[in-house]
Protein: Adenosylmethionine-8-amino-7-oxononanoate aminotransferase
Organism: Microbispora bryophytorum subsp. camponoti
Amino acid sequence: MDAGEVLRLDREHVWHPYTAVPSGVPVHVVRRAGGVRITLGDGRELIDGMASWWAAIHGHNHPRLNQAARDQIDDMAHVMFGGLTHEPAVRLAHRLAGMTGLDRVFLADSGSVAVEVAIKMAVQYSGRSTLLTVRGGYHGDTFAAMSVCDPVNGMHHLFGGMLPRHVFAPAPPHDYGRRPVGTSPTTPTGPTTPTGPDEAYLAELTAAVEAHADRLAAIIVEPVVQGAGGMRFSHPAYLRRLRDLADEHGILLIADEIATGFGRTGEMFGCDHAGIRPDIMCVGKALTGGYMTLAATLCTARVADRIGVLMHGPTYMGNPLACAVAGASLDLLAERPWREEVARIEAALLDGLAPAAGAPGVRDVRVLGAIGVIETDQPVDVAKIQDIVMGHGVWLRPFGHLIYTMPPYACTPEDVARISAAMVAATAAL
């Protein structure tokens, strides 16, 4: 089909995420993707500044990942995981356990499902059903995951009558990676923290946990970076305090690393900034390098032994194709100098986004690892902003008050400079 026919049928039948039918925001046909670029149906080539929702860390159409999929499909595309096992899943679970120090691995379909499984683990482990989290978070769109998203900016107003009620501590302050935009990192290994944590906020966290400790099954947070809830960066000391409080009161700590895992923040996992290990961890997105849907919920042997039979079982759990590609993606990550790549992206974003700081309509500009954010005073006009950045040869997907990028690690400094220039240009439309 030509691009016009694709769009016509799309308008007739397809429901896109977070839109009405038909979509109020323009939809663009993609013909192919390779490296860090996607090619549209009209021939335009755009740098994928979103890494396709933060997943394609190696870029698109990578020969190693392609080969892993080809090799696996000749043996089997899928078999049920109930009562059967296979090498790709076992190798992947062993690899993830070694990377995280969490011995038991439950392979799930998506990030939201991984969070659902984590919550089930906590409930079955403790016999309790209340969780504590912080405001400003995002953990997925399914019901249990949605219930621990921010109660104001999430979807509670639409589904509040059906969602369980949990405990929400205040959102963490913005006090990590707050080096002035326009300066470069002082080391090649990631950001420094110019100030210590907010002691008053540490006291608020302590009070919130202590007030509800006797009914909490778990604490669930996104480590260091709150993703789709607002791209907020917080001091690792808050995560360390939650780890200490969980230990003190016999509560599980769940780390949602779906957005932060596999190097995005400058460390392999967000928890590494704080030097802690959670009891349960959720990973996804970049796990397969952006090739296909796969996630995992990991936990300690202590948690698994106490739970016994976990009541969950997705049909495509442990899909061999996805597991094979995930294994190849983790091999590729281990081989490439991802720390240096992320540090270079960070440096380029710090320089490139500097002109937006203090611009009319801009509330804040911040960078951490391979994440660059321009926060605006008012909600952005998505279609208008996308039209501007596409005119600069860049694909971004702004939302709410945010024009942001989480590009593939394979981006060159020139690619990141172009992404930054497109974001700065978009601020002129605020």
